[in-house]
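Lab meeting, item 3. Inverse folding demo.
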């Protein structure tokens, strides 16, 4: 089974890129972020024609998350991260996909920092941590996947010294991420590649992609029930070089199908 996460940076404007990648990579489950489309503008007909079922949580102009499934049944569990009923940003979607819970997230960026945007990011991380802890209590296969807007270690950023005060790399943000892992979650790509520099995002500016001046901010967190089934993973870096593409590349893992 192949599961992928991809920040598409505008699903309708980059639909051709998404459909091409879906055809070439053929993932079984896909988490998408930054749809930048209201609920009624999600391109469900094109997604279904490509062979996928979908649930999605849209928002006009900003944010938005979706979960796609090729063959497995998909049933939405919730689209509001508990802890703030007034939070209207579309950043969380949780679904039962086959026998597995998949949570697709688009964690706030937090810049400029310090400031209210960083405060919101840290509160969001606290809420995610509480929800993640609840999910672990069920002792079922769970994946939390998406754009975390966090570089956990110096291996995850091409120039660590440049990002010391950036909300994606600030000490308190990384600490919150590592406390989340401490509940029992595993950062799948770092588990597979403990010592390698690898990136999932390259800015559109300053020729970042050609220089491989990137960041690793798209992650899979696996519950203990799934870790023994993890087989491989990687980044489809070449997609970042396609015409009219996102500034993120798709990231994927493969694992044996979880038992009931």
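The presenter then showed the designed sequence:
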């Amino acid at each position: 089974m192949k599961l992928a996460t991809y920040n598409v940076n505008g699903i309708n404007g980059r639909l051709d890129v998404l459909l091409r990648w879906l055809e070439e990579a053929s993932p079984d489950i896909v988490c998408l972020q930054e749809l930048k489309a209201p609920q009624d503008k999600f391109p469900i007909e094109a997604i279904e024609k490509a062979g996928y079922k979908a649930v999605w949580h849209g928002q006009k102009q900003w944010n938005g998350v979706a979960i796609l499934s090729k063959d497995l049944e998909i049933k939405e569990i919730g689209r509001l991260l508990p802890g703030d009923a007034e939070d209207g940003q579309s950043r969380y979607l949780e679904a039962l996909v086959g026998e597995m819970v998949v949570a697709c997230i688009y964690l706030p960026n937090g810049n400029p920092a310090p400031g209210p945007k960083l405060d919101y990011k840290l509160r969001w991380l606290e809420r995610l941590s509480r929800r993640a802890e609840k999910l672990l209590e069920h002792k079922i296969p769970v994946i939390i996947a998406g754009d975390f807007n966090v570089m956990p270690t110096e291996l995850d950023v091409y120039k660590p010294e440049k990002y010391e005060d950036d909300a994606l790399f600030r000490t308190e943000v990384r600490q919150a991420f590592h406390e989340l892992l401490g509940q029992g979650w595993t950062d799948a790509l770092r588990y597979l590649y403990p010592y390698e520099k690898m990136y999932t995002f390259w800015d559109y500016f300053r020729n970042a992609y050609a220089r491989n001046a990137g960041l690793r901010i798209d992650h899979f967190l696996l519950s203990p029930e799934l870790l023994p089934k993890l087989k491989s993973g990687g980044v489809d870096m070449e997609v970042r070089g396609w015409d009219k593409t996102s500034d993120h590349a798709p990231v994927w893992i493969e694992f044996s199908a979880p038992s009931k």
